[in-house]
Amino acid sequence: MSPKKTNPDTMSVFSPKLAARFDALVLKYPAKRSALIPMLLYAQDEIGYLSDAVIAEVAQRIGITELEVRNVATYYSMLRFKPAGKFNIQVCTNISCMLRGAYDVYERFQEELGIGPKGVTPDGLFSLEEVECIGACCWAPAIQVNYEFHNELKPELVPGILGGYRGKAGAPSDESSSLGWKAGAPSDGKANAEGKAPDA
Q: pTM here?
């Protein structure tokens, strides 16, 4: 995802809709800085990552330094400082997932995509990373693609999952891969509901 240019009307890197959401969000807290994490998550959803311009504007909006924003943001693995793919694949390798074959799934994603950890495919469609617990231990091994969960995975389901997302993006996909998409389809359970960004 390419960096977004500053809106000439508002001198903001955010869309008018998101800027208005931020204005309302800070009013919900006794201290503006309490809105930092949700602001960073919403900013990342729109821009794609936490660029220097994003960090500077968020800091200005809540009255703290850019260093303070970075100190908080670097603590959370879901926040990133480099552009990711359109579909960011997060493979959980914490204990429950690890014991049920998460690393085999992770390796298969690397093989199919031709990228390593924290890599991005040349077409910008996929990025891949290993993460800690994503709250889907009962359905391990599990992955999260953006805000969608795929549970009880096996390496052989990986091509189908990738094919499903290529189909969503309108990219060419092998028809034989549809089985994996259906078998590892996004969860409609509790984990999926809680995985979505909260509405402000």
A: 0.71
Pull the structure tokens for residue 154: 């096996």
β-pairing, 126-131 vs 87-92, is: parallel
DSSP 8-class letter at 186 = B
Tokens, residue 155: 């390496």
Using the predicted structure, report yes or no on whether residue 200 has a pLDDT greater than 80: no
pLDDT at 196: 38
Strands 126-131 and 148-150: unpaired
In contact, 198 and 38? CB cutoff 8 Å: yes
Q: CB of 123 within 8 A of CB of 171?
A: yes
Cβ-contact 150, 161 below 8 angstroms: yes
Give the whole-number percent of the chain exceeding pLDDT 70: 80
Among 43, 162, 22, 31, smallest CA distance to 91 is for: 162
Spell 121-131 as b/e; 16+ CB within 10 A means b: beebbbbbbbb
Peptide bond into 30 cis (omega under 30): no
State how far the alpha carbon of 122 is from the alpha carbons of 4, 84, 143, in Å.
20, 11, 22
- pLDDT tens-digit readout, 37-80: 999 999 999 998 999 999 999 999 999 999 999 999 999 878 99
User: For the chain, what is the total number of helices (H) and then of strands (E)?
Assistant: 9, 4
The residues facing 158 across adjacent strands are none
